[in-house]
Amino acid sequence: MVVRTIPVDSFDLVIFGATGDLALRKIMPALYRRFLAGQMPHDARIIGAARSEMTDTQFRDTVRAAIREHAAGADPGQLDGFLDQIHYVAIDAQGVGGWDHLSALMRDDVVRAFYFSVAPSLFGDLARRLSEHGIADGDSRIVVEKPFGRDLESARALNATLARHFGEGQIYRIDHYLGKETVQNLMAVRFANILFEPLWNAQYIDHVQITVAETVGVGGRGGYYDHAGAMRDMVQNHMMQLLCLTAMEPPYHFDPDAVRDEKLKVIRALEPVSDADIVRGQYQGEGDAPGYLEDVDNPDSRTESYLALKVRIANWRWQGTPFYLRTGKKLRARTSEIVITFKPPPHSIFDEAGPRANQLVIKLQPDEGMDLFVMIKEPGPGGMRLVQVPLDMSFAEALGPEGADMPDAYERLIMDVIRGNQTLFMRGDEVEAAWAWVDPIISSWDDSKHRPEPYDAGSSGPDEALRLMHRDNRRWREIRP
Predict the structure, then answer these.
(1) What one-character DSSP code corresponds to residue 199?
(2) Torsion, Cα of 115, 118, 119, 120 (10° steps)
(3) Residue 198: is the preceding peptide bond cis (ω within 30°)?
(4) CB-CB contact of 325 with 239 (8 Å)
(5) Are 278 and 441 in contact (CB under 8 A)?
(6) Residues 6+ apart with CB under 8 A from 52
(7) What pLDDT, in 10s, does the model give residues 238-268?
């Protein structure tokens, strides 16, 4: 299968925070891979902006080292061509230094995009100075990273700050999970095939599980994470988006606002979650490996590194079908997946126990693909014995070498910014609606003295999370490599 690469228009992309971890580990390698694919025009320019004083040559050397480390198979000849398109400006986000230099670099006849790879506290300063210096115009785009606020009040304030200088159609709130190939394929499977959509409702689906499991702890992010926790760091954004794409109604067209309108309806239909349907956990130390409390250097922390929720959607499609969400650090394996478990047949004609329920497993990482589990007859004589087998659609196998080397999320999303396509980016009202649902849950934790349940590193999480499912006569899908 041939993967088509469609070049984008020429652009000037300014990356604020260009010497930071995100820019060097994700953004620059993603742009380099788009350069290799022939998607970047030869006259496109990438302008790094940060506080450090350095020349273009020094910054290019920094980018060269980052690409060699984070972009597999970097071609020295091709890399030099990419680096020729990179420039650097030393800039003070909260002062006057560097803004005239940046203004002089910008061209009038190309797409202007500005990536805020900085702390959210600087978003407003950058937006104001881009406007004051005439660097951004009505066609410019800005990209803002999470966390987009830490509660509803701060998210509203941040939206209002950006709205003073940019229209909603210019603001790209990025969530890299939406750039994953399988996440987009979820929409294709649902809305481009008659097979699934008639069954995609409470009449035929027993429950849905969404899992994002990590093997690492909080690492060097302890200071940030202990003020965020799994709810703010994962559920309010990444997992909320996966929930919306799984549960939303068909949009009238694959159009940015049509898709986001349907996602917003799902968030607004979420019922409040009771304490009985929530499990919070903290990983414990093992041997010489520190536990969560040591990693964040806070022995009194009540912040969760693991969270499991039972969520209900109050609408006709999903009434009575629960969605179970779980995410955690230091778990058994690194995996992200959505599991759609269908109801069993209403009557079994076979003598043995009834057939197991069909499942559609949508694998987001580490190996993107889908498995549809169906019942067949076990081969061999001796009667009708049933066995469940997967119909496997691994992108690497089904689509050939090109399928195995699909663009990663940042590659796709940055190119969508240049195209002006907001389909895979969150809208302001969508972010605020998510916080409106999350805030009461977090507030109830703040008012409680209950500590998160301890769990062993390398396990599947707290035992209480297993009981959350068992009391409904259901089981989590095993977390496995």
Answers:
(1) G
(2) -10
(3) no
(4) yes
(5) yes
(6) 19, 90
(7) 999 999 999 999 999 999 999 999 999 999 9
Burial of 287 (0-12, 13-18, 19+ CB in 10 A): exposed
Structure tokens of 189?
A: 């499977």
Concerning whether 238 is annotated as a catalytic residue, the answer is yes
Q: State the 10-residue block means of pLDDT for the chain, 481 residues long.
A: 74 96 94 92 95 95 92 78 95 90 93 94 93 92 90 94 95 91 86 90 97 91 88 94 96 93 98 95 89 93 96 97 97 95 85 76 86 81 75 62 67 95 94 96 86 94 95 93 72
The active-site residue, picked from 87, 133, 238, 470, is 238
Check if the beta carbon of residue 317 is closer than 8 Å to that of residue 249. yes
Residue 243 and residue 311 in contact, taking contact as beta carbons nearer than 8 Å: yes
CB count within 10 Å of CB 286 equals 13
Q: Which residue bears the tokens 């549809």?
A: 372
| 51 annotated to a ligand binding site | yes
The answer to whether residues 140 and 169 touch, using CB atoms and an 8 Å cutoff, is no
Fold (topology level) of 11-145: Rossmann fold (3.40.50)
Would you list the domain boundaries of the chain? 11-145, 178-407+427-470
Helix 256-268 vs helix 428-446: crossing angle, to nearest 10: 20
Rounded to an integer, what distance in angstroms lies between the CA atom of residue 296 and that of residue 139? 43
pLDDT at residue number 351:
66
Assigned superfamily of 178-407+427-470: Dihydrodipicolinate Reductase; domain 2 (3.30.360.10)
Beta bridge partners of 454: 282
Distance CA 239, CA 327 (A): 9
Alpha carbon distance 365, 342 (integer Å): 22
Six-digit token pair at 433? Answer: 């609606």
State how far the Cα of 64 lies from the Cα of 48, in Å rounded to an integer.
13
pLDDT in tens, 80-109: 999 999 999 999 988 889 999 999 999 999
Does 26 show up as a binding residue in the annotation? no
Same fold: 11-145 with 178-407+427-470: no
Q: What is d(CA 415, CA 39) in angstroms, rounded to the nearest whole number?
A: 9
